[in-house]
Design brief:
By secondary structure, this protein is an all-alpha fold. The chain has 12 helices and no strands. The longest helix is centred in the C-terminal third of the chain and has 26 residues.
Length: 224
């Protein structure tokens, strides 16, 4: 029973932490718990009750737990899990689409926020109806806006590809024993990455700043 409960206790303590980011630990935590519930070679020798508990717990997780987009993005923005190998191909694809959407939202241009204003001829100039037609009906502003959006989307995808390819800089790995035993903080990675990933770094800071649970806030209220 102790071995059965140990992964659950570890996960509960970690995702409820308020000292370091936690949203990026959600999908790995569920993966770890699921792994602990897998059928083992010595199951036949174990108490049938424990085998039942593990099988029932795995079924309950499958039925009741589904990942929110922010859980998937939290996994992506942790450079150590950026390739999301423990997630399904569908979840990986969905996550990239969520990230692209967040980047576009972060980088929306004022031109696309407000409808194009009608252009008017200056009062002191001779203006024919054809000139107004050229200005307001056949102008290239909408084409430019579409091209601008495509350019932004391509730029964002380039940031994503670059991050997926290079991501965690192994040259920065510490040799200090005390620091090696500290859990990796993805926010520390993104802190100085605005030059390499200007939009991605902003989205990462926003996503990683979201706590996995409200437990820490609830504790503060209970102490008040």
């Amino acid at each position: 029973m102790i071995n059965f409960l140990k992964p659950w206790m570890n996960v509960m303590k970690r995702i409820q932490s308020s000292l370091i980011p936690s949203i990026h630990t959600v999908t790995p935590s569920i993966y770890i718990i699921n792994s602990s519930l897998e059928i083992k070679s010595n199951d036949a020798k174990q108490d049938k009750g424990m085998v039942f508990f593990r099988q029932r717990a795995k079924q309950a997780i499958k039925e009741k737990i589904s990942f929110h987009p922010i859980h998937l993005m939290g996994t992506f923005f942790n450079p150590k899990t950026r390739k999301m190998k423990h997630l399904s191909p569908k979840q990986q694809e969905e996550c990239i689409e969520y990230v692209k959407h967040e980047m576009l939202m972060m980088d929306i241009d004022q031109h696309s926020q407000s409808p194009p204003k009608k252009k008017q001829c200056l009062a002191n100039t001779t203006c024919t109806y054809m000139t107004e037609f050229y200005l307001n009906t056949e102008n290239d502003d909408e084409d430019y806006a579409d091209q601008h959006k495509l350019s932004k989307a391509a730029s964002h995808m380039n940031e994503i590809d670059l991050y997926l390819k290079h991501g965690f800089d192994k040259t920065t790995i510490t040799t200090d024993f005390a620091q090696e035993n500290e859990e990796f903080n993805p926010l520390a990675f993104w802190k100085n990455k605005h030059g390499s990933y200007p939009i991605l770094a902003k989205v990462a800071a926003r996503i990683l700043g979201v706590p996995a649970t409200s437990a820490a806030v609830e504790r503060e209220f209970s102490f008040a």
